[in-house]
Design goal:
The chain is of the alpha/beta class and 341 residues long. Helices cover 44% and strands 15% of the residues. It has 2 domains: 1-223, Rossmann fold (3-Layer(aba) Sandwich); 225-341, Magnesium chelatase subunit I, C-Terminal domain (Helicase, Ruva Protein, domain 3), CATH 1.10.8.
Length: 341
């Protein structure tokens, strides 16, 4: 049974998310689906990878999302000479106290913007592994917790660009979703010239939500119900990537967990207290594709991981639609409430 407090939290979620969505869209013209995916990852407690060619607004999207929320924000400009200690922090010897003191690195913020993450060496990229998975940093045998909420929004150029290093598989697997912004439509580009021509719209952006609100909303997302049939459907989609002839590396169990969490966040953003197979389908490509490695033959045939995921989605049977099946059953045999019906 869904309590009144849970319903109120879900209503708050859609209201707050709507404010953040409008705030980010004031900066990113004509890309509502990209902004919605960024919000979905935020509420699902994941991390977002934005990949596209230079100049389409990758860093602008990350900054707009960070400035729309009243929380601590740090930006890391990834370069070939960046060291892991620049990210995680370092212990410095204090002469007066005659002991080592830990100086936190740039990762100690609630929203961390990693700009052009694939321009740093794989060793430096790997400094984010523990932070993104365990939300802590371990240095000299001492663990330091990271603040909540914690989200890494990283941007990267396509691997073919000069001076880039491909992200390690373990690093890509820790990003809940990958999104490409793409070029704007001519109408959106004209509006962009009007809005961005005089001054950056980021200068006028003000926070529309607080960090403690985001924490409370993520708790509401956790309470979203996922029926057994929907969970099984997500597992079948991910398992199909591990046996596909065009893939030499399929998705991990972490990918299944990320897909389920993202589906719950998408359902909450839609005002529902239960997830549908449609939520899983709509997130399959952004959540799964960046984790997959096509075979050499598939690459020669110019067959992308996104195409493989779409094929798997089309071939995997969808659970039969039955409205009461997706909802949490009410105890005591009574009819469900107004929002459960």
């Amino acid at each position: 049974m869904t309590t009144y407090d849970e319903r109120a939290s879900l209503d708050d979620l859609t209201t707050t998310a709507g404010r953040v969505h409008r705030s980010v869209e004031a900066v990113i013209e004509g890309k509502p689906e990209v902004v919605r995916l960024a919000l979905t990852v935020l509420l699902a407690e994941g991390h977002l990878l934005i990949e596209d060619v230079p100049g389409v607004g990758k860093t602008m999207l990350a900054k707009a999302l960070a400035r729309s929320i009243d929380c601590s924000v740090r930006r890391i400009q990834f370069t070939p000479d960046l060291l892991p200690s620049d990210i995680t922090g370092v212990s410095v010897y204090d002469q007066q106290r005659q002991e080592f003191e830990f100086k936190p690195g740039a990762i100690f913020a609630q929203i961390v913007i990693g700009d052009e993450i694939n321009r740093a060496s794989p060793k430096t990229q790997s400094a984010l592994l523990e932070s993104m998975e365990e939300r802590q940093v371990t240095t000299d045998g001492q663990s330091y917790p990271l603040p909540s909420p914690f989200m890494v929004v990283a941007t990267q150029n396509p691997v073919e660009m000069e001076g880039t290093y491909p992200l390690p598989e373990a690093q890509r697997d820790r990003f809940m979703a990958r999104v490409s912004i793409g070029y704007p439509s001519p109408a959106a580009e004209l509006r962009m010239l009007d809005v961005h021509g005089g001054a950056s719209p980021l200068d006028a952006l003000r926070p529309v939500a607080h960090a403690h609100e985001i924490v409370r909303l993520t708790e509401a997302v956790r309470a979203v119900h996922v029926a057994e049939a929907v969970r099984r459907y997500a597992v079948e989609l991910v398992a199909a990537t591990r046996h596909h002839p065009d893939l030499r590396l399929g998705a991990s169990p972490r990918a299944t967990l990320h897909l389920l969490r993202a589906a719950k966040a998408a359902a909450a953003l839609a005002g529902r207290e239960f997830a549908l197979p449609d939520d899983v389908q709509g997130l399959a490509v952004p959540v799964l594709a960046h984790r997959l490695l096509p075979t050499a033959q598939a690459q020669l045939s110019r067959r992308s991981a996104e195409q493989v995921v779409l094929e798997i989605v089309q071939r995997t049977p969808v659970p039969e639609p039955s409205a009461p099946q997706w909802r949490r059953s009410a105890p005591g045999g009574r009819p469900p409430g107004p929002r459960e019906a």
